[in-house]
Write a structure and sequence with these properties.
Strand order of the largest sheet: 1-8-2-3-7-4-6-5-9-10-11
Largest sheet: 11 strands, mixed
Radius of gyration: 20 Å
Structural class: alpha/beta
Helix content: 25-40%
Number of domains: 2
Bound molecules: threonylcarbamoyladenylate, magnesium ion
Distance between the termini: 54 Å
Oligomer: single chain
Order of helices and strands: EHEEHEHEEHEHEEEHEEHEEHEHE
Shape: globular
CATH superfamily of the largest domain: DHBP synthase
CATH topology of the largest domain: DHBP synthase
């Protein structure tokens, strides 16, 4: 199959909407990461997503809609009052909420679960695609399963060339990490995956929020998974990744000694303000704070593979605000190999 890379324009949205309605898969930009979309009401189309990604069939997809009114076609019954408040505060945006699944959604979308994950993305191109297709769009991140999520059309092309007909190139994703996944079926609401909408932002609206314990550690043997995606190895670059946390000076000392004692092609990932601590070494900037780090992280991990790096040493950031999402992704990419250099 030939994969067309198109800029957003009237003709490309028309063609993309036709492809979706014919049961094909189209990659499109969102503010978090690029999505791999198909008609969420068409089981055969949705199966093509799993095939293109090499995604296990027991990992459910997020259904994307363009306006809150459209949620009635996707969930069963009414949105709980607290979910309405969250929708008002953070939709469109990087928040995915889990509801009881409606009948229009085939079970392959939700991997057989009786719940469904729903999001309204805050991106003009995503909105336009959903509106022109006149369908809810099921979409996981548009990477091959296990690879870092794509934040540019080129990342998508690198993973999907030859296996999907079209990629809409809407430039770099703004947030850079995937949406917050929040179970809102009962109180307290529960964060299953941290993202751009932080636990504090959620608590500000509904008072109380729980964060799943598995967010900052690997799953224990036999542990029940609330969000199936959490159990898979994710975001992993080919090189071995080690995270070092603690006071900046100590972190830098620990990273430098790890770096010096490692053979082969190696690279350090550090915050802009600390670059001078790694003079003379191969170092890559993750930006000035945790939100720039969110924006750059997946691109940095992909670059490590392109450069053929076999050992990566990364600074940690505080797991506060969007830093929680960054540390969750970085932690999983490192299989939670985190060294404490001390305060
Ligand atoms: O920002 C995003 O969320 C991006 C863009 C494209 O919207 N999408 C994305 O999808 O990251 P994906 O498939 O890569 O991640 C969806 C996560 C997975 O961890 C999955 O297990 C979880 O959401 N999920 C989906 N439906 C669920 C459900 N019914 N119950 C629990 N977890 C669910
Ligand atoms: Mg994904």
């Amino acid at each position: 199959m030939n994969t067309k890379l198109v800029k957003p324009c009237a003709a490309s949205f028309e063609e993309a909407a036709q492809l979706i309605n014919k049961g094909e898969v189209v990659a499109f930009p969102t503010e978090t990461v690029y999505g791999l979309g198909a008609d969420a009401t068409n089981g055969e189309a949705v199966k093509k997503i799993f095939l293109a990604k090499g995604r296990p069939g027991d990992n459910p997809l997020i259904v994307h809609i363009a306006s809150v009114d459209d949620i009635k076609n996707v969930i069963s019954g009414e949105m709980p009052e607290w979910a309405k408040k969250l929708a008002e505060a953070y939709w469109p945006g990087p928040l995915t909420m889990i509801f009881e699944k409606g009948e229009n959604i085939p079970s392959c979308v939700t991997a057989g679960l009786d719940s469904v994950a729903v999001r309204i993305p805050n991106h003009e191109d995503a909105k336009r695609l959903i509106e022109e297709a006149k369908k809810p769009i099921a979409a996981p991140s548009a990477n091959l399963s296990g690879r870092p999520s794509p934040t540019t059309a080129k990342h998508v092309f690198d993973d999907m060339n030859g296996s999907i007909p079209m990629i809409i190139d809407g430039g770099e994703s703004d947030v850079g990490v995937e949406s917050t996944v929040l179970d809102v079926r009962s109180l307290p609401v529960k964060v299953l995956r941290p993202g751009g909408v932080t636990p504090k932002m959620i608590a500000d609206v509904v008072g109380e929020v729980e964060v799943a314990g598995s967010v900052m550690r690997p799953l224990k043997e036999g542990e029940t998974v609330l969000s199936p995606g959490m159990k898979y190895k994710h975001y992993a670059p080919e090189g071995a990744l080690v995270i070092v946390k603690g006071a900046p000076r100590r972190v830098a000392d620990a990273i430098c000694s790890l770096y010096d004692s490692t053979e082969g092609k190696k690279c350090i990932l550090a915050l802009e303000g600390n670059l001078a601590l790694y003079r003379g070494k191969n170092v890559f900037s993750l930006g000035k704070d945790s939100s720039e780090m969110a924006h750059r992280l997946f691109d940095a991990l992909r670059r490590m593979d392109e450069l053929g790096v076999n050992a990566i040493f990364s600074e940690a950031v505080d797991a506060e605000g969007i830093g929680l999402a960054v540390m969750n992704r970085l932690g999983r990419a490192a299989a939670f190999h985190i060294v404490d250099a001390g305060e």
